[in-house]
Design goal:
It is built from nine helices and eight strands. The chain has 250 residues and is an alpha+beta fold. The chain has two domains: 71 residues, Arc Repressor Mutant, subunit A (Orthogonal Bundle); 150 residues, Chorismate lyase. The chain has a six-stranded antiparallel beta sheet with strand order 3-4-5-8-7-6. It has a two-stranded antiparallel ribbon with strand order 1-2. Strand 1 and strand 2 form a beta hairpin. The longest helix has 15 residues. The relative contact order is 0.16. The N terminus is likely disordered.
Length: 250
């Protein structure tokens, strides 16, 4: 669950966006190693502590991979085979008995991740869901999903707003947000996906009785309708989770 320290602060958000923009425009292409922290801090005109904090956020969001002694590397941006077909985690983790457990439903301020990927104003509010997806009784995925603000959802498709609780209907607590939106949508949806590496962390590890340092695969997705982002998500698959069942390219 996002903590107070995850809330947006303008200087940090600006630095986060500058680095992502440099990746998108090819200054730091996928697979490239970022300059050392001292060199990058000088290049960007920021302090090393501020840069280090943002690099940690970028790693958590799957944008880069940081390794002790070898620096930071930009993750590959093209989706892995099969991820260009938009499918919920419940389908990717099959076969097996899949069940979702909702840990949190909150209406919150934008975080660095949701604010950037959903293009949210600081005053906007986004619906956040944290869900554990079990396969055959074992935790296989942590889903952190943020919807666009209610006004955007209603403009794109009123059914999407109702599906996540931005209308009179109560949100479905037995599925991931992506699954709920795909079932409700009356318009075509597309996504951009990235894969990276991270660790579970203290809170997620405690929730499933696993060490905080447990390695995890991180899948991030931004789902859009006609180019307008409606969902931003992080899906963490801890070591030992079932293999993802990806659809072949056509």
């Amino acid at each position: 669950m996002p903590q107070q320290g995850d809330r947006r602060h303008s200087p940090r958000v600006e630095l986060y966006q500058r680095i992502v923009a440099a990746i998108d425009d090819g200054t730091f292409p996928p697979g490239a190693r970022l300059p050392s922290e001292p060199a990058l801090a000088v290049r960007l005109g920021v302090s090393r502590p501020a840069l280090r904090e943002v690099l940690i956020l970028l790693q958590e969001d799957g944008v880069i991979t940081r390794r002790q002694g070898s620096g930071s590397t930009v993750n590959q941006l093209p989706p892995a085979p099969g991820l260009e077909r938009l499918l919920p985690v419940e389908t990717l983790l099959g076969p097996g008995t899949v069940r979702c457990r909702r840990l949190a439903v909150e209406l919150e301020e934008p975080t660095d991740f949701s604010g950037f990927h959903l293009r949210l104003a600081p005053s906007a509010r986004t619906c956040f869901w944290e869900t554990v997806v079990d396969v055959d009784g074992a935790a296989a995925c942590f889903a952190h999903e943020w919807a666009a603000d209610a006004e955007t959802l209603r403009t794109v498709d009123p059914a999407l707003a109702a599906a996540v609780g931005a209308g009179p209907a109560a949100p479905d607590r037995t599925a991931t947000m992506l699954s709920v939106l795909l079932d409700a949508a009356g318009v075509p949806m597309s996504s951009r996906s990235t894969l990276g590496a991270t660790v579970l962390g203290k809170e997620r590890g405690a929730a499933i009785s696993r060490p905080a340092e447990t390695p995890a695969l991180l899948l991030t997705q931004t789902v859009s309708v006609s180019g307008r982002p409606v969902l931003a998500a992080k899906y963490l698959f801890p070591a030992g989770a079932p293999l993802l069942h990806l659809a072949p390219r056509r």
